[in-house]
Fold this protein.
Amino acid sequence: MRIDIWSDVVCPWCFIGKRRLETALSTFEHADGVEVVWHSYQLDPGAPATPVETVAEALGRKYGGGPDAGWAMIDRVEAVAAEEGMLWRHHDSLRVGTMDAHRLLHLALHEGGPALQGRVKEALLAAYFIDARNVADHDELRAIVTVAGLDAAAVDGVLRSTQYADEVWADIEQAQGFGATGVPFVVVDSKFGISGAQPAETFTQVLDRAWSESHPAVELVTTPGAGGDACGPDGCAI
Amino acid sequence: MRIDIWSDVVCPWCFIGKRRLETALSTFEHADGVEVVWHSYQLDPGAPATPVETVAEALGRKYGGGPDAGWAMIDRVEAVAAEEGMLWRHHDSLRVGTMDAHRLLHLALHEGGPALQGRVKEALLAAYFIDARNVADHDELRAIVTVAGLDAAAVDGVLRSTQYADEVWADIEQAQGFGATGVPFVVVDSKFGISGAQPAETFTQVLDRAWSESHPAVELVTTPGAGGDACGPDGCAI
C-alpha cells in the first residue's frame, strides 16, 4: 500500500498531520507494507530565501494585530502540537521559502527511496518547528539533511544548481490536479484523498478501507477452455 | 501494476501463455511499471524425482494408445508453441517432479526479486521444453539456474535442505483459494484472474482494464475543515 503526501516543510498542520498518520499506522495491521512518499507543496511561494521577519511577525502583518496577534495564533497551533507530543519553538521560526528544502527531499527520494526521504522530511520539519532553524539557509540545510543520511556532495550539487526544481513544480501541479486547496493532502493507494490534518481515527478508517478495496477476492475474467488452454490435474488440453 | 502467475515448470500451456503475455506486454503502454511474480503449482505431484519414462510415454499410458498417442498429443502442442516462435524438443522431455525447481524459484525471488526470478523461470521452462533437460536432477538444476544468475552456494543450500518448501505449498493453497483448477493462472493487480493460456489480445484487454481501474481520479474522502485543519494560500486554520 502506498501513501502519497503533499506537504510543506513550514506547514504546521502538515507536521501535526504527520504525527496523527503515524499514530494510525502504529496500530494498522498491514503497516509493514506501507510506503510513504512525500511530495512538494509551497504554501508561501513568495517567502524570501533570506529571512526578514519571524512567522509571528508575518502573520500579524498579514491578518492584522501585529506580532502579538501572530504570537497568539502560534500559541494555539503549538497547543495542538503539544497534544501530539511535540514541544515546538515555532514563535522563533523565520518566514522563509522552501524551494531548496523540497529539492533536497526529491534528492533523498532519488538517492535512497521512501525510507531516506522519510528521515529527511522528519529532520526538516523538526529543524523548523522544534529547533526554529532556518530551512532556507544552505549551511543549515546541509547540516540538517546530512545528519538524516544524505550525502554532502550530492546535497551541494543540488544546492548549487536548479536540480529537481522540475520535480517540485510537477508535484505542485499534481496537487492542483487533485483539487487540493491546501496541505497536508494525503492520497492513499492513488485512490483516497484526505485533506487536512484529520484525526488519527480518520486515517485509520481510510487505511482499512483502502486495504479491503485493494485486496478483494480475485474476479475471474476468463474461464479455462474459453479460448485459453490450460493444464490441470487431468492433464493438458492438447 | 503487479502480475502474479501460478505456473508449473513442466506445463506446456504455461510456457505458451508466458509468450502470449509477453506479446501483450510488448505493446502495453505502462509495461515499465509492471512487475511479474511467479508462483508455484504442481501439475503432477506424483511425478518422480528420478525419471522412469518420457512425457510421451506417460501420456500414452495415462490416456491410452501408448507412446504413439502421447507423441501425437505433443505434436499438437508443439505446433502451438511454434506459432509463438518456439521450437520445442518436448518429445524427449522426461516426466519429473518440480518441487525442487519451484523451491529455487522462491530462492530467486528472495535473492533478486522479480527480475532474477523471471530469468530463472524462463531458463527452467526453456531447459525443459526447448532442450529437454531433466529439471529434477540437482546437477542439471544447478547448471540451469546459475547461468540465469543464481548463486551456486545458495542453490546448493536449498537443494540440500527443504528450504522454501513451505512457500511452495502456500502458493498452491493460494491458487486453490482462488478457485484455480489448472495453470497458467494469471492474476493482474490482485484483482483480475485469467485462467489458461489466453490469446495475447485477452491479456491486453485485462491489462488495459486493470490499469484504468487502478488509476481513477482521486476520490476525496474528507474535506478540509471537516475535522482536519489545513494550511492553504490564505494561511493556516489556527
Notes: The longest strand of chain A covers residues 2-7. Chain A is about 50% helix and 10% strand.
